């Protein structure tokens, strides 16, 4: 696995950050200059020398797509972590593929191009404008380094993207069409990504001086999601092949489900149809061949809006559990903000780490747990501090604009 | 402008795009950008932009199509410089 998250770049840094409750939300002077209401965000910190480890000097000359930066760093890390080699001269590997999603790619590069085109200087765009702004630019950049010869594509389903990518990779492996897939997702950072959300007034605006307290999923004072960015990457591989290679196995994907509420019955462009959410959870549990009461923990979508309580209620109904039997639940967004199209994959990495290393990271900023949530599942199931205990079975959900849902079930590998 | 000086400046411009370092050692008038230096053809447009900036000239599409070797580039640069 690999990750470029606002609170940690690189798997070890990220694991430490989520265990210790280190927030990646920071004040962004650029957003203040541009008069955003919300002037804080989660943005991975990438030092110049790190860039040089992943990109050639020529690539860096024209690189102006933060999603590609985050995606390549996390993707290459994941590939190496899986014991696979990265060599630009290697032969095409027909048994490996890439399914790496994004929402919109290279907006800064696109802006650069728009200014030049409007000034009548289209011929000055150079050769990298297209490849840095096409959605599949991220899988294309990764594959330049990896040389995969199976399906290489980019999926897009808003904030479900990353979790959907994992399940698409899982399906393709299950169908026997590919042996291993580098999967994950990325999201650009910056005002051109976050501006639209600021305009919708769904971001918190009272925490510009107090960024680490701003992202408050499940709390009574939740006032909207803090925008984030980054990338997460996982290598999914057919079990026998992974064993034969002696690869490090963090966890097993046991199953999952992807659906849409159809923007009906309370579902809309921006809100999920609860019936769709519940079906997605139930079908994922069924697909994985497990039981709801067997879950050790849930990593929710939980963005810090009024929908948090609805989501928890949906989990409870779908799993048919009372408060006493409900598993611990957490949301990574308290630490990273909502990393949009990267959220699903970064949160899948966090989920798999919990299964592999036996912990449930704490929910910072839930000192004032929403009474409705407390009533539904109890204070003890929303830990504020990280719990170190056995985690064998985890459900992870992501929901996205357009009323789309994805739930994946991770299990301990034994 | 002296041919040698133009070639020196071209060499600096081309360097980051070169994929055959061996051929780059023998960089001279007859060097072919794609055949010898194995430069990705998509990068030729970037080289043209760099040349435009370095020599303060504009290279039209027809000239660009004919810019296969270092010698071609030198001739185009000299011609554009005279026009200017």
Overall form of chain B = globular
Percent range of helical residues of chain B: 55-70%
Q: What name goes with the CATH superfamily of the largest domain in chain A?
A: Thiolase/Chalcone synthase
Query: Strand percentage of chain A, roughly?
Result: 15-25%
Unreliable residue stretches of chain B: none
Quickly give the structural class of chain A. alpha/beta
Q: On the 0-100 scale, what is the average pLDDT of chain B?
A: 94
Distance, first to last CA of chain B: 13 Å
Query: Considering DSSP H and I runs of 4 or more, what fraction of the residues of chain A is helical?
Result: 25-40%
Strand-pairing-aware structural class of chain B: mainly alpha
The assigned CATH architecture of the largest domain in chain A is 3-Layer(aba) Sandwich
Q: And the CATH topology of chain B?
A: Non-ribosomal Peptide Synthetase Peptidyl Carrier Protein, Chain A
Total domains of chain A: 2
Number of strands of chain A: 13
Topology as H/E string of chain B? Answer: HHHHH
According to CATH, what is the class of the largest domain in chain A? Alpha Beta
Overview of this protein structure:
- The complex is a heterodimer of chains A (414) and B (84).
- Chain A is of the alpha/beta class.
- In chain A, 37% of the residues lie in helices and 16% in strands.
- Chain A has 2 domains: 2-245, 3-Layer(aba) Sandwich (Peroxisomal Thiolase, Chain A, domain 1), CATH 3.40.47.10; 252-411, 3-Layer(aba) Sandwich (Peroxisomal Thiolase, Chain A, domain 1), CATH 3.40.47.10.
- Chain A has helices at 11-20, 29-33, 48-54, 57-62, 66-81, 107-118, 129-133, 137-146, 161-174, 191-199, 239-245, 274-288, 307-319, 333-336, 343-357, 371-377; strands at 2-5, 8-9, 25-27, 40-42, 96-102, 152-153, 180-187, 230-237, 252-260, 297-299, 328-330, 393-400, 404-411.
- In chain A, strand 1 and strand 2 (8-9) form a beta hairpin.
- In chain A, helix 5 runs parallel beside helix 8, helix 9 packs across helix 15 (343-357) and helix 13 packs parallel to helix 16.
- Chain A is globular and about 65 Å long.
- Chain B is an all-alpha fold and 84 residues long.
- Chain B has a single domain (3-83), classed as ACP-like (Non-ribosomal Peptide Synthetase Peptidyl Carrier Protein, Chain A, Orthogonal Bundle).
- Chain B is 57% helix and 0% strand.
- Chain B is built from 5 helices and no strands.
- Chain A binds chain B through residues 57-58, 61-62, 124, 126-128, and chain B through 16-17, 42-43, 45-46, 49.
